[in-house]
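Q: A reviewer asked whether we had any structural model of the full assembly, not just the individual parts. We don't, so I'm hoping you can provide one. Inputs are below.
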Amino acid sequence: MGIFPQSIRWRIQLWYLLLLVVIIAALLMAFHRNQREIRYQVLDRELSNPITRLLPNMERRPEPPPRGRRLSRPNLLDNFEDEFRPGPEGSGRRSPRGASGPDALERRRVNLEEMVEELAENDIFVIHWSRGGELRFASANSPEELKLFPDEVFREGDRASKKTVQGYREIIHASPNVGILVLGASVKPIENYLLRLEKKLIGVGALIVGGGFLVGWFLIGRSLKPIEEISGAAHRIAEGNLSERIKISGKGSELGRLSTVLNKTFEKLETSFEHQVRFTADASHEMRTPIAVILSKSQFALSKERSPEKYQEALQTCVDSAQHMRTLTSGLLELSRVDSGEFHLLPELGNLEGLTCEVVKMIEPLADERGIKVTCNLQSTKAEFDSSKMRQALLNLLGNAVKYNREEGEIEVTLNRIGAEIIWSVRDTGQGMELAILKHIFERFYRVDKARTRTGRNGTGLGLPITKAIVEAHGGTISVESEVGKGTTFQIRLPVY
Amino acid sequence: MRVLVVEDQDDLREVVVETLREESFAVDESADGEEGLYKALNWDYDIVVLDVMMPVMNGWEVLDGLRKEKQTPVLMLTALDEVCDKVKGLNHGADDYLAKPFDLTELVARVRAVMRRKGGDHCPEVTIGKVTINTTAKTLRLGDKEVEVTAREFAMAELLIKHRDKVVTRDFLYDHLFDENDESMSNMLDVYVYKLRQKFGKSFIRTRRGQGYIIESI
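A: Here is a predicted structure for the entire assembly that you could use as a starting point for your response.
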């Protein structure tokens, strides 16, 4: 990503900073401009006010301009300091009405001088040109470079203009009567002030931006904290601590909702992982026991010379254990197929009645051994099903019914179609089970017979979970009802398509 | 030496019990934890071989229950061989730990080792006067000559040597030499003492009248 950092925090921070800088700069620039304008306006006022006071003392009759000019000029050149004098003198002389004698002229002249001095004290200079362009007067503080006649078109009528030339602000008043009068002052003080202001503003701006940066860093950090939490928790979970959860701050916020969802996901993951771990541990435990039996039994048999009966017994135990392992591995394989979603059915149209009869025939020899009577009440029911898997499921149920039945007990198998459902039930007259046990019987490796009645290698604890998986793969459900001392009934319900 | 085997898997328990009996131990058995704990609390076993995964009451519970009252040596037997399980077992107060599937010879060796440690002997060979006993090879020697003894005779000599310099009562001898199913009468003890004296000399086992028997190391 080039110079842009990857971190969201830095990106937001940089954009925020950029925006802040632009806004602050614009504001400060506007302020600066405004200050400048105000200063110049004040200066302009300071410059134009004296003009209105000067002009009445300078005005001449416009009637005989050439003569007045000619007359005044030699006088004007007498003494540079008194340059200004002839102007008003001339005009005074030539004014026929306002002439009040030399006293009045003198007063006006003194007046003018005072005014010019006063202006000079305020660093304002005065320059005066005649209409023709001759320099009539320039106050002592007027800069040399400005004493040249301004290249301006002289028009009829009074006219004032402002401009800034070479570091001086000047107000130029041009009138046909007086000629061109310029009042000016250096803009240096203003520019100096503005420079200082600029520095101050830059300082203030930097402070604001700096403060904004810190506040922004803090605020962004705070709003991004849940993300840190999430990534931290995810990291720890990735490292194997599955019980780790994200601390949720502010459930309503987007990140709070995300955290909730993620926590739920983690919980599911943990459950399924735990399930997997437990399953593996259980499976390995189940495998270890028969291996231990085979190993120790054969070692025992081989440890010294024994009678043929002892060898036979040892071999029989080994065969039984191996067979148990075979049942166990095929069961585990079946269940791992269910878990990985590779439990595929091969459904065919068939009659469930035939299948049930077949299974009952398979189980009858075992039932006969224990004097158990099997009664069937079957309705011919056609459906689509995977016959080999369904046979396995039924065989499991009937096998259990024989195994856990009492001697001389009964088994009743019924098959009915009610509405859009096929209902199948296997009832035995065994000891029954308590509710606490019933809750677990479809769990893997859970064995009801583990307390004492167990005949060792018969149960794998996988029969009912497999049966359940088969029934569910067919879209059906399996349920169990039991009464202690009376017996247990398993019921399979299959939908008819 | 009397051993209790607590194991819920019938075939496995059977073979462990038979093996230990062949090694001249007196062996009792239990198929679940509850019964196992009851027996372990009521008899003084020299060692308890205890399975972990059992119905009703698992091995940890049995061990905890036993440790509250007794310091009988315990060898845990289990299908879990994760390190943390072994550590857990040893931390719970087990004396040794063996993971299934195990070698029978290893089981016997460990049973002997645990009992030796509990008896204070670390070497399988102990010599008292001229008599030398080797509990691993199960031989008794008088000087350099090996003397043939029956399993019961050996067990009695082993027991008395283990508790040498202490008076061993007839009840104690009876409890540790015969298992729960043994129908032998207690006067069988006199027979074994008589035979051992015949083979190793009269002074090998002394009788403390009204108290019991003693083997003195000096």
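A: Points you may want to mention in the reply: Chain B has a mean pLDDT of 85. Chain B touches chain A through 24 residues (CB under 8 Å).
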